[in-house]
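Worked Example 4.2. Consider the chain below.
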Amino acid sequence: MTGFDPEGVKCVVWDLDGTLWDDVAVESATDELPTPRPEMLAAIDALAARGVLSSIASRSAPAVLDRLTGGRPEVRERFLAPQVSWQDKSESLRRIAKDLGIAVQALVLVDDSPYERAEVEALLPGVRTLAPTDVPELLAAFEGREVTPESRERVHRYRTEETRRAEGERFQGTREEFLRWCAMRLMVGAASPDEIPRALELAARTHRLNSSGLTPDRLRELTASAGHELYTARMTDRFGAYGIIGAALVDRTAPGAWSVPLLALSCRVAGRGAAAAFLFWLMERARQAGAEEFRVTLRPTDANLEMRILLRQAGLRRADDTPGAAPDAAVLARSLHGDLPKAPPYLHVSDREDAEA
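Applying the procedure from the previous section yields the following structure tokens:
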């Protein structure tokens, strides 16, 4: 567990035979599945209470998952996007990450087989692998970490996301028509004190839609300093509430300009226009406040291509007059004169103060 960073972990993926339970399910003489190890179920529940998802990657007959669903629903419901097949474990992990909409590097595999762990380490070098005997240390790594309301609700919200995805697959119409049918609403406003922990969590845990990778400690420091404001975005749709899905720190210390050292959104809203709508709301609010220029700090990574494309589509281009900028970061800027981009028509955006009035 040396060098293990729990902040980057979003999902723990569990093997079945020899890990979740002792025996080999396909060798059972009946349809009865092996009894899960109580300490493993307790570990899964403890992780869920801290906002960490669990999934399954098992090289076994697909019918094992059907038997788990029908025979042990109280166990099956603990797992999201499970993969039970004869495919390589690395491929199962890729599919789990895709289904959950998270980076594969945000997964941890727990597997009793040294061969399976080695296969994943070779083909997915960003994924941490553990033996079942390492689980107590895994849990210890999460002890003391602040748990936000969004963290406690994360498993439930990902289950709701599975419902959304299933409805989207059944929907008869275009993707935009489906998003309009979802009746999505984004509510943006200044962060209240009790929302700051969630903003820090977004800064630490988001990668796809994170402009700068600003550390939680630095974000906390800047939020408390003069001339800085923190904004958060909440989202709902016909399926329920997403919770706080976005955070943006605004630096208003330069005359005539709004600078955004951090724009971060949950990967759960990727592809739904929320990132664009949040960014465009900030631009419009900056213009209303009298700013003439809008700036965003960008630190390009392998994961945040989606954010980079969004910033370019919003008309932001690299600024040349940024002395003191970090060598691995750039400042993108655009004028606030003229027409500003608008949120997608299927997403209703409002100021939170107006929505709560």
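The radius of gyration is 22 Å. The chain has a mean pLDDT of 91. Compare this with Example 4.1 before moving on.
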